[in-house]
Amino acid sequence: MPATAFSQYYARELDVEQLAWLLTHTQPVGGQQSIPDLSAWADWIRADIQCSSCGKRGAQIVRPSKARGTKTVVRQAHFRFTDQSGGNAHHPFCEFYTADETMRQPDSLINFGAEKSVETRAVRTLICKGIEQKIFDQAAVRAMRQWFFDLKSSTRFTVTASPQIVDWAQQLQRHPSYHRWEFHPAQADMPAFDWKAAAKFQFTEENLTLIECAKRVVHDDAHWKRARDLSERHFAHEVFDTTVLQPFYDKSLALCAFVGKNSKISFSKTRPEYFRFNQAPAPLLALCALMLFVSDWDLNVAIGKFAKLLNAPEPADFSHGNVIGLNPFHDYAAWRLITLATEVEAKSSAGIDYAAQLLSIESRLRQNYAIWKSTQAATGV
Ligand SMILES: [Zn+2]
To answer: Are the C-beta atoms of 255 and 288 separated by less than 8 Å?
Structure first.
């Protein structure tokens, strides 16, 4: 359930409390957090407030509740989006569609207001500057979220890569294929001949196209693990097609690396050269996507705006940074691997069991050797 939502009228992301203050023109006294009765505004809220992810309307206020006889808040105030018949109004692909009553914030959302890390703090200052310099506003942040949501949901695909298929693609990617070696039975006469290594070399010879296909997109184990989890959860279901994001992802990464190198700000412990290997810090990536979005995805226009941002004076009001941003490329790497695994599987004519294939090749080589050995004996060599 979203803790914040977007008000069309106020053109910004608000939590229930902030909305209540604005509607009733009252501020809480002495820091006391209470939410006035908003039932008079119920229709207005339904029509004005939008889900920050999918943009659907139909918001209701869910008031906070406390544990009986205590002051402990067991449920924070939040928005619930319902349709005319009282059902879930979110788009089925919305990150809040399956969210329960807990206040879970989806991983794809970045709270720039929460100064959790150095990475977020540096970007937060830039967000404040950007709003003060009118380079973007909260409505642009909201518009970008909707734009990405519509782009992804307009192209969907059904996940056909099972976790086993993902494993197979990962094994092919990890398979050592640089060094090539052709087997000849005479080699096996060596006293310590390595049959396992011979089987691997032979596997390379027989599956070279497949291996090259699997090595096209190189990722680390964490992304493979995430891809496996996603395939397990979404197998045979329809999902967003994140591959449509590729040109936007590549541009955002390029901007991230350029800004990382040329801004005098340290955004991350990772060197900017490594950002392109899916190592870019998420808050900076989200800001770069936003800068490109307000620059019609023109890299140099975005760089010009970044220069203006970096040269602007310190922001007067840090509360501007209270923006919930979107990392539009959340899980992008993992989804890309799922697509890759699907392609690899379609080209696999001999099954997807790596270990079994190596064993079968080894036994074939041993047979070849045995035949060769018997002919050698027969001809008396
Ligand atoms: Zn939604």
So the answer is: yes
